[in-house]
């Protein structure tokens, strides 16, 4: 039987790829990777080979092509239930946080794109970004206060992975995560797969158009 293949974007920029990739690594789901550099002349054609949706990530398991980060996470969770918290109410909250991230926070996602290599960029938030940032601080703080940490729901789960790009973005643009969440961000960043992702992102040489690497 062939090993499932996860098609991802380059690590420095592809926040949607990071989410299921991290879940799969933490769950011990065996897979191979195909990396497609984003925003290059051949990107669309390359992605189209794997998904008519024109987006990465895509998980290919035999004849099955699963696209969209949350669908991939749910597929992995069917075989590895520890992807979500064991307790029903916590599981529902973890899914709510994850769905809110998946569907929302467009202001932050657009104004503060993930760029792991860049550091110390300051971009003044407008009103929509301020609202997103406040909401993110609130929901991280609330989850950690309920669980007692160290991760959002005690042990690592998919909600931590869904918010992992927030850690990268807030670090790049020096945005405060709010009381309580800084320790969570440090614990998350110290996970071995997260360290591997960051290290590989720093070594990548692909750059998207108009990108300048910060200090
Ligand atoms: N809702 C999708 C969003 C995926 C997405 O927007 N992926 C970006 C990369 S992070 C992409 O494939 N962009 C295509 C391109 O840049 O051509 C998911 O959750 O997987």
Q: Could you walk me through the main structural features you see in this protein, from its secondary elements to its overall organization?
A:
By secondary structure, the chain is α+β, with helices and mostly antiparallel strands. It has two domains: 5-81, 3-Layer(aba) Sandwich (Glutaredoxin), CATH 3.40.30; 84-199, Glutathione S-transferase Yfyf (Class Pi), Chain A, domain 2, CATH 1.20.1050.10. It has nine helices and four strands. It has helices at 15-27, 43-48, 69-79, 88-103, 106-111, 127-147, 158-172, 181-189, 192-203; strands spanning 5-9, 32-36, 58-61, 64-67. It has a four-stranded mixed sheet. Strand 3 (58-61) and strand 4 form a beta hairpin. The longest helix is centred in the middle third of the chain and has 21 residues, at 127-147. It starts with a strand and ends in a 12-residue tail after the last helix. The mean pLDDT is 95. The structure holds glutathione.
The largest pleated sheet is described as: 4 strands, mixed
- CATH names the topology of the largest domain as Glutathione S-transferase Yfyf (Class Pi), Chain A, domain 2
* Contiguous uncertain segments of 5+ residues: none
User: How many helices?
Assistant: 9
How large, in whole angstroms, is the Cα Rg? Answer: 17 Å
Shape designation: globular
CATH architecture descriptor name of the largest domain: Up-down Bundle
Beta-sheet strand percentage? 5-15%
- Run of helices and strands: EHEHEEHHHHHHH
Alpha carbon gap, first and last residue: 46 Å
* Number of DSSP-assigned strands: 4
The average pLDDT is: 95
> Mind telling me the CATH class of the largest domain?
Mainly Alpha
Give the helix proportion (percent range): 40-55%
Largest sheet: spatial strand order: 2-1-3-4
**Which molecules other than protein and nucleic acid are bound?**
glutathione
Q: Which structural category do the helix and sheet elements fall into?
A: alpha+beta
**Domain module count:** 2
